Amino acid sequence: MATIRILLTCALLALLGACASAPHAQRSSERQAAYAAAVGAPVRSFRFFSLYSWEPVGDRQVAIYTRPNEAWLLDLGGGCPEISFVNAIGLTSNINQVMVGFDKVLTGRNSFPCTISQIRPVDVKSLKATQLQQRQIKSAPRSEDKPAAVRQ
After folding, report:
1. Got the DSSP string for 124-139?
2. Which PROSITE patterns match (predicted)?
3. How far apart are CA 9 and CA 18, in angstroms?
4. Which of 19, 35, 36, 76 has the most CB atoms around its CB within 10 Å?
C-alpha cells in the first residue's frame, strides 16, 4: 500500500512538473524567435568595456548588453548548459575586444568556459518591439449565442 502511494505521488509530481515547464518552454521559444528576428550579420569581434546586462537565450546562446541600447547575441560552440542557472557570468577579452573562436563566456569556478562560435549585433529597438507584440493579450468578445446544450 505504501509503495502505491509513493508511485502515485511521484506520478503526480511528474505531471505537475510537466505542466509547469510548458509555459517556460513557450517563453523560451518566443525569446529565441524575438532575438532571431532582431540580429544582424555575423561579425568577428566587438568592443567590450563593461557588461551592462545579459540574458540566456537557450543553452547555446547568450545576449550580452554592453549598454542599454547595444547588445550582441553570442552563439556558444558545444552549448553551455549551466548558462540558464547561473546568477553571474564573465567574458574574456583581449585589449577590450571579444573575438569569435578566441574568447569565452565564464559561468563559474568549477565549470568549463563556453567558447564563442559566432557574434551577431542585436537591433535592440526591433527586439523590444517584437517582445512588446509577444506580450500583447489576444482577446475577442464573447458571442451572444448560447451553446446548443444550454438552449433547451
Report:
1. HHHHHHHHHHHH----
2. PROKAR_LIPOPROTEIN (PS51257)
3. 14
4. 76
Contact residues for 30 (Cβ-Cβ < 8 A; gap 6+) = 134
Size of the chain in residues: 152
Q: Cα(127)–Cα(39) distance, rounded to whole angstroms?
A: 9
Closest C-alpha among 21, 52, 58 to residue 124: 52
* Residue 105 contacts residue 83 (beta carbons within 8 Å): yes
pLDDT digits (tens, 9 = 90+) for 39-84: 999 999 999 999 999 999 988 999 999 999 999 999 999 888 889 8
Dihedral, 72, 78, 79, 82 alpha carbons, nearest 10: -120
Question: In a 10 Å sphere around its CB, with 0-12 CB exposed, 13-18 middle and 19+ buried, how is residue 78 labelled?
Answer: exposed
Question: What's the pLDDT at 112?
Answer: 85
Query: Other C-beta atoms within 10 Å of 133: how many?
Result: 9
Integer Cα distance of 58 and 107 in angstroms: 14
The set of cell numbers assigned to 141 is 468578445
For residue 131, the one-letter residue type is Q
Q: What strands, in cross-sheet order, belong to the sheet with 114-122?
A: 53-56, 61-67, 70-76, 114-122, 104-106, 90-91
